[in-house]
Amino acid sequence: METSAPPSPALPRAVAPQHLFRLVVPPIILPVFLSAADGTVVATALPAIAASFGEVANLSWVVVANLIAGTVAAPAYGRLGDLFGRRRMMLISLCLFMAASGLCAMAPSFGCLLAARVLQGLGGGGLMTLAQALLGENVPPRQRGSYQGYLSANIVAGSTIGPVAGGFITQAWGWHAVFLAYLPLCLIAIVLVWRLPRGTAGRSRGGFDIAGIAMLTGFIVPLLVAVSQLQRMSPAALPKLGAWLALAAVALAALLWQQRRAAAPLLALPLLKIPAFWRSDVMGACSGASLTAMMTFLPIYLQVVTGATPAQSGLLLIPLTGAVSLGSVLTGWLISRTGRTAVFPTFGLAITAASLIGLAIWAPSLSRTQLAWLLAFGSLSQGSAMITAQITVQAVAGFQQLGAAAASVQLSRSLGSAFGAAAAGAVLFGLLSAMHPATADLFFEMLRHGAGALEGVSAAQQEAARADIAAAFRGVFLTVACFSLTIVACAATLPLRRL
């Protein structure tokens, strides 16, 4: 049985339809692009950073520290936006992100760079959350589908363009220029956001939950550290992994206890009791897990199994990313025209899961081109889950809690993305180690040193290793298919099915 969205206590300001796109899209597109591109842009500069500071062992913390800070900051910006205005908090977020980018570029040591990256994460954590909330503040519910489609397509574009831009900038001008490139983009974004109409804060009373932020940090840090260790599981690492997970569990219990008693809680726990809301969060988490796992491991598959060069693997991913972007825009348009939401991920992600199961069966026998287009076909509906999740939580939360709703989905997506990459990696390396430990060791070397690690290995051994790795990748495709089927289950049982 279909249900309609509950009436909001306050609706977005009435804006003539012909002016709505010009009013809303330019100010929110650039912050979303910056947020989506940041991780991938910087990742391509890591080798140059390592050469500059010599901190190879701790290099991953340049990305991880920023991820942790951004994940913790997202719900804080949602709450602050509801209290003090989303436009104002977006301007603060952009200014902090821009200042931190300048500090990253001028960092004289690795420690200073890490500190600046944490500060950059604290600024960047609000970009995606506040963009979603600003969209809900300025766009009527029935029209949000189209605009969510633009945002989803822009997220994919940022993630795709990031590695290319980061590699080019690093090669041409050095890693410092990667951070300097953010400065003019941030300035343009600030000017555009400044032109947005001044919004009204959703809630006039209540303070800010400092204790909640501290406890959320205590939960996020050990959880992400534990998740990062999942990718290369070994019996020796199990005690440490168990300790991190136990610490995260204790911190989560303390966080939930504190949030139930806080006068102005950071997390909107009452909303999580609503079936449509928590199902949407699960959909967001699985959507992030699916896309991150595929974008992380598909280049490895293409290079190691099919023998593609890094440049060729990047080109082969274009049909996939193009399909996700096109599908997001199309889904948003259909939602705005029909008012229906849950039907699109219900059937669309079923097709995605079927294509992934097909890959698990036939991928080794497909050519690179056939593989790329099968991925594109399966990914056409990939963006429908996030669009439906955001539209649903905004409808459930109402105008007063748009920031909290957007932050909830963004937090779920961030955690899901980290878990998705870790789970796929754990399945891949676990299967390799179980089948042929020697092949697992060779695979590690190929990841570190590229195809050059195969020099000195006979042709027969190379062919056997590639066959073992291709077989292990079946587990990766099936893992991502499970994420897609989880989305199907949540969407099919979503109580709020129509706007």
Describe the 3D structure.
Helices cover about 80% and strands about 0% of the residues. With about 500 residues, it is mainly alpha-helical. It is globular, with a radius of gyration of 22 Å. Residues about 1-10 have low confidence and may be disordered.
SSE topology:
Blueprint: H1 17-53, H2 61-84, H3 86-105, H4 110-138, H5 144-173, H6 175-180, H7 182-194, H8 210-230, H9 238-261, H10 269-272, H11 275-304, H12 310-316, H13 318-338, H14 343-362, H15 368-379, H16 384-397, H17 402-435, H18 437-449, H19 459-492
Helix pairs in contact: 1-2, 1-4, 1-5, 1-7, 2-3, 2-4, 2-8, 2-17, 3-4, 3-7, 4-17, 5-13, 5-16, 8-9, 8-17, 11-12, 11-16, 11-17, 11-19, 13-15, 14-15, 14-19, 16-17, 17-18, 17-19
Q: Mind telling me the C-alpha Rg?
A: 22 Å
Strand content: under 5%
Q: Estimate the global geometry from the Cα principal axes.
A: globular
How confident is the prediction overall: mean pLDDT?
82
Taking pLDDT < 50 over at least 5 consecutive residues as the criterion, the unreliable ranges are 1-11
Biggest sheet record: none
Give me the strand/helix succession: HHHHHHHHHHHHHHHHHHH
First-residue to last-residue Cα separation? 13 Å
SSE class:
mainly alpha
Percent range for helical residues? over 70%
How many beta strands in the DSSP annotation? Answer: 0
Total helices: the number is 19
